[in-house]
Amino acid sequence: MRNFLKGRLLPVRICLIACMMGLLAVGIATIYVVGHPDEPSPASDAAELASYWKKQLVFAVVGAAGFVAANLVNYRRLGAVSHWIYLATVLLLAVILLGKYVSLPFVPLRGGAHRWIVLRIGSHSLPAIQPSEFCKLAYILALAWYLRFRSNYSRFSALLGPFAVTLVPMVLILLEPDLGTVMLMMPVFFTMLFVAGARIRHLAMIVLLAVVVSPAMWFMLRPYQRVRISSVLLQSRSVRDKAQNHPALGKLLVGSKFTERSWRNEWGYHLVRSKFAVASGGWSGAGYGQGPFVKYDFLPERHNDFIFSVIAHQVGFIGCIGFLLLYVLLVVCGLEIAVHNTDPFGRLMAMGIVAMFVVEVAINVGMTLGLMPITGLTLPFVSYGGSSLLVNMMAVGLLNNVGRCRPFSVAPRKGIEA
């Protein structure tokens, strides 16, 4: 541990790790309480829900090993093999896509999507692996290594390379389908291009191009994906009335006939319950382990996608401010590490990781409040899930690595480093 803490920016890196541990503790405590309410639910999955906190502890131990592994070598050496890491994750995504069209026993269908690889040893299944989670970190590494040369982004034509690096995994992930990870990658892409020094007008042209093609992309979405996006608008009673009275508008928004009953019981069920849970927390909350959204099965996925709703229900508005301050401190520490690094690769990687955390938190918290589309994007370090927790702890390990290791010279193969 002493080797991991020595070096530059020691107070900043200690604060970074402390924020990660605090968020992890909040997550495990919340997962525990939703599985052990005062009045257990008679649902058949109650026993499984009660065991999730133990599994999350195991995931945390594995994540700690990932944190250590991310610090074993100087981060520049990881950059030198980043293209191989990127290709490995793309191949895993391709296997997932193959399993969608060709029956593969280790690529199961869960929740209407093929996102996981499940391996077995004898009659026992190993924890599921979600390649799209690992792709986020592999993508940041590869893009940061590519953008370290000024010649790779100074001209508009030079942006085709990083755009291709982004587009390939995005298409594969979208076909799983996994809308949340796709929504994450574009902000990270623009953030890293901006930090690298790409021209504003070039970035504006890419945004304009995305706006032009977005109507065509809308009709390529599945009905439930349209609902997740249009639900932000359908929270308005007037919009719902118009969708119900004008079948063409309803079909455009949800892909089928819109009815108020379907909205309450199907399309808007998660969103309405989530907002009730947050609002019922009030200023100070119902208390740890208290409140109907903890005691009863009123809110689906309250240990995972909607775990922030449960936190808000228990601690209220004031407690949520304190909770979100942990993320603010984590982001500030990451920015401090990035700003004080003179190595282009280290600075870009740190900024990409910071952008990843910001977007994940913004989307997850935003969707529980009805400000963002509902996706499968988890709340970093807090939501239940082995792959996401491992990737996020490895990401913090890389930030610590960037802050700890002094840049050493690596002869460039071509171009001029930024």
Q: Any overview of this molecule?
A:
The chain has 418 residues and is mostly helical. It has one domain (8-404). It is built from 19 helices and two strands. It has helices spanning 2-5, 10-35, 46-50, 52-69, 75-80, 82-101, 131-147, 160-174, 179-196, 200-220, 223-234, 237-245, 247-254, 260-267, 269-280, 292-295, 307-339, 344-368, 386-404; strands spanning 120-121, 124-125. The protein has a two-stranded antiparallel ribbon. Strand 1 and strand 2 (124-125) form a beta hairpin. The two termini are 33 Å apart.
Write the layout of secondary structure elements.
Elements: H1 2-5, H2 10-35, H3 46-50, H4 52-69, H5 75-80, H6 82-101, E1 120-121, E2 124-125, H7 131-147, H8 160-174, H9 179-196, H10 200-220, H11 223-234, H12 237-245, H13 247-254, H14 260-267, H15 269-280, H16 292-295, H17 307-339, H18 344-368, H19 386-404
Antiparallel strand pairs: 1-2
Helicity range: 55-70%
Gap from first CA to last CA = 33 Å
The helix tally amounts to 19
Main sheet? 2 strands, antiparallel
**How many individual domains?**
1
How many beta-strand segments? 2
Structural class: mainly alpha
Strand order of the largest sheet: 1-2
- Average predicted local confidence, pLDDT: 86
Note poorly predicted spans.
408-418
Strand content: under 5%
General shape: globular
Radius of gyration: 22 Å
List its traits.
mainly alpha, 1% strand, 418 residues
Summarize the structure.
Helix content is 67%, strand content 1%. It is mainly alpha-helical and 418 residues long.
